[in-house]
């Protein structure tokens, strides 16, 4: 089923949980200073660890008969960082797509329900909107990575953890230029605004009005479910919901603000059943249908979420 058709349906869609953050907790010595977890695909230890993490999320989707969205480990593999790294000249974005395609191939028939997204992030610190690129510079900067991911056969592209509207708009233009379907995901405050103060409904409208083709939809990530719940009760959140364009959340297990989380060495968590209950409440209350995990989550959190989502839509997918 094409991703656009899947997302327009009412069925729940599972997203993966944390990847790079699980590596940081379990094997921090494997992370690259510039590219984070992307170069793990080139070492035996790194490939083994990444394979296990991604396969866990795929198997959870299979066990609960849910489609699942998985994202390449390329959030920090932008052209600037790549050029300054020990991996300069390598097609690390394309190789990451092919790595996930291999894992999907190992899942047999269920692979038809696995969608591989090319993951991209802002140039600067996602918690510091003042570091964002202006629109034209963002479009030029992000086009290189977007093309590499699209050319390798990613099913969709995703701009993730976007704190500011101008770079988000420029990145959306870069993603759209590839012809590959794409999603845009923001960080939001309980007030219903991005970290730069732009109301989320206005951010969505700016991109929808100025980019052709427009995104398949919008997500929020790197906040707790309670943060989004509060945000969606705000005027901006209500207007965003009214458009039908806000699809879901990749949630943290901590309710701390971005400022509190930035540089924190301690990871606040919550039990998998509590995480799943908060996410299920968002689906029941607001109709969100793409749900997964971000910081603090692991396979236990995603398994609890998947079981809850499957119970909310017991009909088997065909």
Description:
The chain has 318 residues and is α/β, with parallel strands linked by helices. The protein has one domain: Homocysteine-binding-like domain (TIM Barrel), CATH 3.20.20.330. 45% of the residues lie in helices and 14% in strands. It has 13 helices and eight strands. It has an eight-stranded parallel beta barrel with strand order 1-2-3-4-5-6-7-8, surrounded by six helices. Helix 6 links the parallel strand 3 and strand 4. Helix 8 packs parallel to helix 10. It is globular. The mean pLDDT is 95.
Secondary-structure map:
Blueprint: H1 3-8, E1 13-15, H2 20-26, H3 44-63, E2 68-71, H4 79-84, H5 92-105, E3 114-121, H6 135-151, E4 156-162, H7 165-176, E5 182-186, H8 200-210, E6 217-224, H9 225-232, H10 235-242, E7 246-252, H11 258-261, H12 272-286, E8 290-293, H13 299-312
Helix pairs in contact: 3-13, 5-6, 6-7, 7-8, 8-10, 9-12, 12-13
Structural class: alpha/beta
**Which CATH C-level class is it?**
Alpha Beta
**Largest β sheet strand count, sense and barrel closure:** 8 strands, parallel, barrel
Rg on CA atoms, Å: 18 Å
How many helices does DSSP assign? 13
β-strand amount = 5-15%
Give the overall average pLDDT.
Answer: 95
Oligomer: single chain
Which architecture per CATH? Answer: Alpha-Beta Barrel
CATH topology: TIM Barrel
User: SSE string, helix = H, strand = E?
Assistant: HEHHEHHEHEHEHEHHEHHEH
Number of domains: 1
| Spans of at least 5 consecutive residues with low confidence | none
Total number of strands: 8
Distance between the termini: 9 Å
- Molecular shape: globular
Q: Give, in spatial order, the strands making up the sheet with the most strands.
A: 1-2-3-4-5-6-7-8
Percent of residues in helices comes to 40-55%
Spell out the CATH superfamily: Homocysteine-binding-like domain
